[in-house]
Specification:
Structural class: alpha+beta
Radius of gyration: 23 Å
Strand order of the largest sheet: 1-2-8-3-5-4
Strand content: 15-25%
Helix content: 40-55%
Order of helices and strands: EEEHHEEHEEHHHHEHEEHHEEHHHHHE
Number of helices: 15
Distance between the termini: 62 Å
């Protein structure tokens, strides 16, 4: 159903024809290697670009233009997809067939997006200082909010300790220090560089024919990726440091235990669907082993859940515990993993896990935004299954498949955020 069109050597359009929606959607994203040197610049850049273009040089005029486009909406995109950071814009807008007779929306929407991306407000070879300083404050605030959310902070710290030497250790939007060091000139120089050198992913969902969409995007595509290279290669995480335990003290009432595990099964592996089912059985929901046993039955934690980063082959566990329960809770979390390894999984547990995944997948085509997220991240991460194929793969998973995947999961890093002693 989805059609891939190469607008140029390094600019790809993925066209998803769908006439069910009143609104279409369009995203444009530059693909960058995830790295400490430019993560903050990339995150800041799109926020600055959204402050104004030569044609609409301030937020007020941008708002007016969006209103003229039948209330179109635009937002920035800053994603981490394995070893890749994507930066760009996402727009949704009314389909031409619902506009007044003679009006077109798709064409002026594409032009508006082209202007934002390629014709920013610039003076003397630099971005507007007010735009840059304002958005730097916003970005630093977003970074600091992570530290204030202790659950998120503990999980992030565990990943940073675990993935030393790997791009996955880099904070998605940079650090306070890297943001503070950015100037209007350095950001503009970076912008000019990545326009030329970045591969570009464009995604469209709506009723317009692929040929029409490609023709409308041609002027934008011609200005992008002229000196680009192939998208960064995705790599499975392989630890470069031995397994370790870390802890920090902070003013918290509830300890935060985060555990990181490795597995050779990533989303390019034949067992990917089975690995997703394992994660759901282990700690992915309210019927999982961690929730039902560690939390409900044994009351060892306030919450316990697992996550799976398929692009890298990393499994995580997050839980909130009393400090006195640290060793007991950790042991029980590992015990539930061993139960999966041994195939101690009831049919009810398996069915609930599979149904949760399938329900989520079946709901994806109900939203242009969900379709965009699924297909763009799949393309960038290297996963080659459409939604129907993914559902069939999940349906075929057996207890033995789950146990086989569980046996590949090895604990590597433990991080505990504990309270300050009285």
């Amino acid at each position: 159903m989805i059609q891939t069109i190469h607008l140029s050597e390094h600019v790809v359009l993925r066209h998803y024809p769908d006439s069910r929606f009143k609104k279409g959607a369009l995203s444009v994203q530059l693909l960058r290697p995830m790295c400490q040197e430019e993560a903050a610049k990339n995150a800041l850049l799109v926020a600055v670009l959204l402050r104004g273009s030569a044609a609409c040089p301030d937020l007020r005029r941008i708002t007016w233009r969006l209103d003229e486009l039948y209330g179109a909406a635009i937002s920035t995109l800053v994603r981490r997809v394995g070893d890749v950071q994507t930066v760009g814009f996402y727009m949704n807008f009314i389909e031409d067939r619902f506009a007044l007779p003679g009006d077109r929306v798709l064409s002026p929407t594409v032009e508006f997006l082209r202007q934002l991306l390629l014709e920013p407000v610039v003076a003397e070879g630099a971005f507007d200082p007010d735009f840059v300083e304002s958005e730097k404050r916003n970005l630093i605030s977003a970074i600091e909010s992570e530290r204030n959310d202790k659950r998120t902070y503990a999980a992030a710290q565990m990943i940073r300790y675990m993935c030393q030497g790997d791009s996955f250790a880099c904070p998605r939007i940079g650090t306070r220090e890297t943001v503070a060091a950015i100037t209007p000139k350095s950001l503009y120089d970076h912008y000019r560089s990545i326009l030329r050198t970045s591969p570009v992913e464009i995604f469209y969902v709506g009723s317009a024919p692929a040929e029409e969409v490609a023709q409308l995007l041609a002027p934008m595509a011609a200005a992008l990726g002229s000196h680009g290279t192939a998208a960064p290669t995705q790599t499975r995480f392989v630890p470069t440091v031995p397994p370790r335990e870390f802890s920090e003290q902070m003013d918290v009432n509830q300890g935060k235990l985060s555990m990181g595990f490795t597995t050779p099964v990533n989303n390019r592996h034949p067992d990917f669907a089975a690995m997703q089912v394992f994660n759901s059985v282990y700690g992915g929901g309210m019927t999982s082993k961690l929730f039902m046993n560690v939390r409900e039955k044994l009351s060892l934690c306030y919450y316990a859940n697992s996550g799976y980063y398929g692009s890298k082959g990393i499994v995580t566990v997050s839980s909130g515990i009393d400090e006195a329960n640290y060793e007991t809770a950790k042991a029980e979390i590992l015990h539930q993993l061993q139960a999966c390894v041994q195939g101690q999984i009831t049919q009810e547990e398996l069915n609930s896990a599979k149904q949760a995944l399938i329900s989520s997948l079946r709901s994806t085509p109900d939203s242009p935004g969900a379709l965009e997220s699924y297909y763009v991240t799949s393309a960038i991460s290297g996963m080659a299954m459409d939604i129907d194929e993914y559902i069939r793969a999940v349906e075929a998973v057996t207890v033995q498949d789950v146990a086989r995947c569980a046996s590949t999961v090895q604990l590597h890093t433990t991080f505990f955020l504990k309270g300050v002693s009285a």
